[in-house]
Amino acid sequence: MPEAYIVEALRTPGGRRKGALAQVHPADLGAVVLDALVERAGIDPAAIDDVIVGCVSQAGEQAFALGRNIVLASSLPQSVPAVTIDRQCGSSQQALHFAAQAVMSGTQDVVIAAGVESMTRVPMGSNYRLHAEAGLSEGPWSKAILERFGVREFSQFVGAQQVADKYGLSREAMDAYALQSHQRAGAATEAGAFAAELIAVGGLTRDEGIRYDASLEGMAGVKPIMEGGSITAANASQMSDGASGTLIVSERALKEHGLTPIARIVNLTVTAGDPVIMLEEPIAATRKALTRAGMKLEDIDLFEVNEAFASIPMAWLQAIGADPARVNVNGGAIALGHPLGATGTKLMATLVHALKARGLRFGLQTMCEGGGIANVTIVEAL
């Protein structure tokens, strides 16, 4: 089967909600990434076959074909097509999968997979609330779906708490994990570990959400999101604004355009499970991906497990048995932010550059997603 390669993987800094990137339109935010990918790769933008953009809250400024609007806001010619997809938090990771699959099938040679989310300008759930504004009693889930699973709604907060309870994760342990995320992200920033992947935008040159003064005492004072629960804003990912992207090409494109790859796609996996507990699925997805790739856990040098809530990577670590020192080595979404649809390719940028900086070979990225879905991508740094 033909190979798919990553030539560039870049991201904007994570902007705090209502922070430094609040005044940047989502289309312009995405355009910054597209322009940077093309410029750094040194490729003719007219050679791009397609742009696939992940975005979760496709409403307001992120509605009406956001992917196409990003292209129109960029320096790419209008001849470059684009599409917008939603696989919840894994939207841009799935964009990467679709891009790689297009290249591996031989139908396209140069595809950009990207993601954008402005959680300031288009608040989380904006599209979800439209049914109420239209005077409709039913939301995204019909009565038949809710009756089938015995719930009033599907909630990521409920799922995160269920994961914490199932794996015996205490509030104190999750706060300690969250503190580690801030400490790792802060240390990585001060050491310049993100320099190769970051694109300055809106005057922002570094991730805005890192709390350098974070403490267990401060975290202990944050109220639980749900009464009687242990999930809090302190041990959950930060709402943020951001964009990210990867340039995916075929071997033919490498030769034709004189490009140098930084990674090779090894495996693309997506699975689905219980939509109620929902966020536990990366465990099953990781096992399936390793099996399909013919690899063992020990073969993977670094892991990126999205920190939607501290309970998710902690449960994953407990179930999978990976070395914690190899997981989210530069911190995660608790410190760096989780701009929903942009997080997939954001994590890939961090993973690939972390592998190269350390002289390591294989990396695995996984993402929990609404509806009980999970993506896993395995790459080889070159």
CATH topology of the domain at 4-124 and 239-257: Peroxisomal Thiolase, Chain A, domain 1
Separation of termini? 19 Å
Q: What is the structural class?
A: alpha/beta
CATH secondary-structure class of the domain at 4-124 and 239-257: Alpha Beta
The global form is: globular
Main β-sheet, in a few words? 10 strands, mixed
Describe the structure.
Residues 5-251 form the Thiolase N-terminal domain. It comes from Sphingobium chlorophenolicum L-1. Keywords: Acyltransferase, Transferase. This protein is of the alpha/beta class. The chain has a domain at 4-124 and 239-257: Peroxisomal Thiolase, Chain A, domain 1. It has helices at 26-41, 66-73, 91-105, 130-133, 143-149, 156-166, 171-190, 216-220, 251-257, 282-293, 311-320, 333-336, 343-358; strands at residues 4-11, 15-16, 50-54, 82-85, 110-118, 240-250, 263-272, 302-305, 362-369, 373-381. Strands 1, 2, 3, 4, 5, 6, 7, 8, 9 and 10 form a ten-stranded mixed β-sheet that branches. Strand 3, helix 2 (66-73) and strand 4 form a beta-alpha-beta unit. The radius of gyration is 20 Å and the shape is globular. The two termini are 19 Å apart.
Strand and helix map with partners:
Blueprint: E1 4-11, E2 15-16, H1 26-41, E3 50-54, H2 66-73, E4 82-85, H3 91-105, E5 110-118, H4 130-133, H5 143-149, H6 156-166, H7 171-190, H8 216-220, E6 240-250, H9 251-257, E7 263-272, H10 282-293, E8 302-305, H11 311-320, H12 333-336, H13 343-358, E9 362-369, E10 373-381
Parallel strand pairs: 3-4, 3-5, 8-9
Antiparallel strand pairs: 1-6, 1-7, 2-6, 5-6, 7-10, 9-10
Helix pairs in contact: 1-2, 3-13, 10-11
